[in-house]
Write a structure and sequence with these properties.
Elements (H helix, E strand, L loop, with lengths): L7 H11 L4 H14 L3 H6 L2 H8 L6 H16 L6 H5 L6 H12 L8 H10 L10 H8 L6 H5 L1 H14 L18 H5 L16 E11 L3 E6 L10 E2 L12 H7 L16 E9 L4 E11 L11 E4 L10 H18 L1
Parallel strand pairs: 1-5
Antiparallel strand pairs: 2-3, 2-6, 4-5
Helix pairs in contact: 1-2, 1-7, 7-11, 8-9, 8-11
Function: Adenine glycosylase active on G-A mispairs. MutY also corrects error-prone DNA synthesis past GO lesions which are due to the oxidatively damaged form of guanine: 7,8-dihydro-8-oxoguanine (8-oxo-dGTP).
Keywords: 4Fe-4S, DNA damage, DNA repair, Glycosidase, Hydrolase, Iron, Iron-sulfur, Metal-binding
EC number: 3.2.2.31
Length: about 350
């Protein structure tokens, strides 16, 4: 894994990317990100939009915003703090990431506790309480895993070995116990319950929300976009205009009321004739989003008010800080508009 390189910048980037994202998905983003921003200075100097664009597709965009803020703070500090407390005081760095950087990059004898380490601890100590309620108990158990002299003398190697153990042997299903170095001391294996642990509280059914987004394009292939607020879900990214997502579906009358320029009846401009051209489904961690994509073409885009957005050439959309969700919406809108116009 990229974090095996004991460079604090590399460890930091890889650990932030791996939050809520699989290793397979992260690897190409990691290499592209480091090629684009090879060090703290390059990341701190880059415009936030460029960082968000490089992050597009990974989701959880607050991570990218915090990376940028943290890089600026690291420039002010003159580099990374070398202790857990100092690292955890930085923007976007929590207890786990601070411990990972401290152990892997600086050789501090601490145990970074992620999902893999929680699973290892649940099995070694036979913790039967379900997650997430057992998280504090598992963390308290996990910090004792490095009590041996080898782990204390080689904190970086131990931390990475622990991650590898959870990723390759002590896996969620069918753990390879016969190959595990802790098989003799594993309490769950002695009880024959290793495959059952850690136990989890059943998840509630993921709710559904509904959205509407509008692709308005003129005859010169200029389309209207806007920036989401800096805080919150997909904060700071670029999107097609549309109302706030909600828990009920949108009626045709409601769509007409919230469409861009619907209040410009007095303008000497052609009012956009909106047509639904497709639907986009996107799954977030806590809800599923169903979006109706509407599209319209006009001779010339009306001059938008600040809150309505700004025009951008279609050929430049790919370089904007669009989320993967909004890329799907733009593609659906453009393809649907081509079919409708032709």
């Amino acid at each position: 894994m990229p974090g095996e390189v004991a460079d604090p910048y590399h460890v930091w980037i890889s650990e932030i990317m791996l939050q809520q994202t699989t290793v397979t998905a992260v690897i190409p983003y990691y290499h592209n990100f480091l090629e684009r921003f090879p060090d703290i200075e390059a990341l701190a100097r880059a415009p936030l939009d460029e960082v968000l664009q490089a992050w597009s597709g990974l989701g959880y965009y607050s991570r990218a915003r915090n990376l940028h803020r943290c890089a600026e703070e690291l420039i002010r500090l003159g580099g990374f703090p070398r202790d857990v407390a100092g690292l955890q005081a930085l923007p976007g760095i929590g207890a786990y990431t601070a411990a990972a950087i401290a152990a892997i990059a600086f050789g501090v004898p601490v145990v970074p506790v992620d999902g893999n380490v929680e699973r290892i601890s649940a099995r070694i100590f036979a913790v039967r309480a379900p997650m997430p309620g057992a998280r504090k108990q598992l963390a308290a158990k996990a910090v004792t895993l490095n009590s041996g002299p080898a782990a204390q003398n080689r904190p970086s190697d131990f931390a990475q070995a622990l991650f590898d153990l959870g990723a390759t042997l002590c896996v969620p299903r069918s753990p390879a116990c016969v190959l595990c170095p802790w098989q003799k001391s594993c309490q769950a294996r002695k009880l024959g319950i290793q495959a059952e642990l850690p136990r989890k509280t059943p998840k509630a059914e993921r709710p559904t929300r509904y959205g509407v987004h509008f692709l308005l394009m003129d005859e010169t292939d200029q389309l209207l976009v806007r920036r989401r607020p800096p805080q919150g879900l997909l904060g700071g990214t670029i999107e097609l205009p549309g109302p706030e997502w909600r828990e009920t579906m949108w009626s045709a009358d409601e769509v007409a009321e919230v469409a861009p320029f619907s209040d410009r009846v007095s303008d000497a401009l052609r009012v956009p004739q909106w047509t639904i051209v497709g639907k986009v489904r996107h799954v977030f961690t806590h809800f599923t989003l169903l979006i109706d994509v509407y599209a319209a073409q006009v001779n010339m885009l009306p001059n938008p008010r600040e809150e309505e957005g700004f025009p951008v050439a279609l050929e430049k959309v790919g370089s904007l800080a669009l989320s993967s969700l909004m890329r799907k919406c733009v593609e659906t809108g453009v393809n649907g508009l081509d079919d409708y116009v032709s």
